[in-house]
């Protein structure tokens, strides 16, 4: 302590440190419920004594108080990275699981409203026609059941088209959300860098940026790198979408109808470099793009387009199988070579399947020359469902494949969501505010404040005696 008055300065530094600690603690308590807030602490260090020189220098000397070095943000970068990684996986898996669940809802398999049940009703109606050949009632039931099957097929295909278009529109919204988050991160990078350069704390800005980086990871995966100057660089597909205080926007390209996907597949591109798709490693956008990919000849395309292709394949095989037998039979008028199913031109097979006969006169139930009561051809058609390579088998194979894929993706989504929840909980346990701990800290700072104030009071009283009562002896 360099002088009597210097002790006041020493106590003042302690007073200021205690007041600042109380303020930070109060801020922590006030933001205990704020999303993304990371608790803070003041960092202090002792101010050493002034150097002494001269002949009589030496011996222990008192320090000059306490210095407030910084207000630290008690976050864990490792846990932040883990949250982003698990958010990327969870976003990807959730997007796929949601799309596959919608496809299962459209098919309604197994169930009385599924195509399998409708198909069995059609085969049963053909058998009834075979048993009562030449009768109008069984023929009417057959036409009704066949029409219901065609309507169910058309309705299912239309729902798949609607799901694809809705998913495509949603992708535009996700791309806009990604651009908005990236722009905010770039802006915050600039503000944080300026604040740090000016010696001001930027902890609240970092909290907000941390939430945005997690949002970007959930949307498009990517990697976050610390630039060392307070800014973050965010990369997706190996290229920076955010670098310092600038960002590169992305855009969705491709058609808005499922039938246009083969010629113009939906993909995410850099706005400044069109035609170059971004290879996303995860996130909701990547998951949505994977299910909206065009169908492939090997069946490994996007699940929505593959479902539509399976509907078309089923419609085509059903018409081919039934028509090939129906052409060999004769109608009540004795004519042959007639189709039972046909397709409307310029429409997908599943959407354009129609029934050719309008009544019993167009149904070829018997073999040529066998008379009007023969139902052998109708009986042969009724057995198509149990033959090798039947439409029933084709449909069952597709339903099984989709069910297995959906179950796998749903389980993956559940596991990814659990992993993300665990990572978030670990992050919160490290960074969130503990009210009990803050209460203890607040008491500590209050007592420190009172102690320093008492030191100042004692020094004041001592100086008062020295200044105002010295030399008053005997009075």
TrEMBL record:
Residues 171-198 form a coiled coil. One of its GO terms (biological process) is bacterial-type flagellum assembly. GO terms for cellular component: bacterial-type flagellum hook; extracellular region. GO terms for molecular function: structural molecule activity. Residues 429-468 form the Flagellar basal-body/hook protein C-terminal domain. The lineage of its organism: Bacteria, Bacillati, Actinomycetota, Actinomycetes, Micrococcales. It is found in: Bacterial flagellum; Secreted. The keyword Cell wall biogenesis/degradation does not apply. This is Flagellar hook-associated protein 1. Keywords: Bacterial flagellum, Cell projection, Cilium, Coiled coil, Flagellum, Secreted. Residues 102-341 form the Flagellar hook-associated protein FlgK helical domain. Pfam families: Flg_bbr_C, FlgK_D1. InterPro entries: Flg_bb/hook_C_dom, FlgK, FlgK_helical. Belongs to the flagella basal body rod proteins family.
């Amino acid at each position: 302590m360099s002088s009597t008055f210097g002790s006041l300065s020493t106590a003042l530094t302690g007073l200021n440190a205690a007041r600042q600690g109380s303020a930070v603690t109060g801020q922590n308590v006030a933001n205990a419920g704020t999303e993304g807030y990371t608790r803070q602490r003041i960092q202090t260090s002792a101010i050493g004594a002034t150097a002494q020189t001269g002949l009589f220098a030496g011996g222990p000397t008192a320090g000059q108080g306490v210095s407030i070095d910084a207000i630290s943000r008690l976050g864990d970068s490792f846990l932040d990275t883990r949250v982003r990684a698990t958010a990327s996986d969870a976003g990807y898996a959730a997007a796929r699981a949601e799309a596959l669940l919608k496809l299962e809802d459209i098919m309604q398999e197994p169930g009385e409203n599924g195509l399998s049940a409708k198909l069995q009703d059609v085969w049963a109606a053909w058998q009834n026609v075979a048993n009562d050949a030449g009768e109008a009632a069984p023929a009417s039931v057959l036409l009704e059941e066949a029409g219901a099957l065609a309507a169910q097929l058309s309705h299912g295909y239309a729902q798949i088209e609607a799901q694809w278009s809705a998913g495509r529109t949603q992708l535009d919204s996700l791309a806009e959300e990604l651009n908005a988050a990236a722009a905010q991160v770039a802006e915050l990078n600039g503000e944080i860098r300026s604040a740090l350069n000016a010696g001001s704390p930027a902890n609240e800005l970092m909290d907000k940026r941390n939430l945005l980086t997690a949002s970007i990871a959930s949307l498009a995966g990517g990697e976050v790198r610390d630039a060392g100057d307070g800014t973050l660089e965010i990369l997706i597909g190996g290229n920076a979408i955010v670098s310092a205080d600038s960002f590169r926007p992305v855009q969705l390209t491709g058609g808005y109808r499922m039938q246009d996907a083969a010629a113009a597949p939906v993909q995410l591109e850099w706005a400044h470099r069109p035609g170059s798709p971004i290879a996303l490693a995860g996130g909701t956008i990547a998951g949505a793009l994977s299910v909206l990919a065009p169908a492939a000849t090997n069946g490994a395309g996007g699940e929505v387009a593959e479902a539509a292709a399976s509907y078309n394949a089923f419609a085509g095989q059903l018409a081919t199988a039934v028509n090939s037998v129906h052409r060999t039979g004769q109608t009540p008028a004795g004519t042959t070579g007639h189709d039972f199913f046909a397709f409307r031109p310029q429409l997908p097979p599943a959407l354009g399947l129609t029934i050719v006969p309008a009544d019993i006169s167009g149904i070829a139930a018997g073999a040529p020359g066998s008379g009007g009561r023969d139902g052998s051809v109708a009986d042969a058609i009724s057995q198509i469902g149990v033959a090798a390579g039947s439409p029933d088998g084709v449909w069952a194979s597709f339903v099984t494949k989709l069910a297995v894929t959906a179950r796998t993706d749903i389980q993956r989504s559940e596991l990814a969501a659990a992993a993300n929840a665990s990572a978030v909980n670990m992050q919160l346990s490290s960074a969130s505010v503990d009210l009990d701990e803050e209460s203890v800290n607040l008491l500590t700072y209050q007592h420190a404040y009172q102690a320093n104030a008492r030191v100042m009071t004692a020094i004041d009283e001592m100086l008062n005696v020295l200044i105002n009562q010295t030399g008053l002896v005997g009075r």
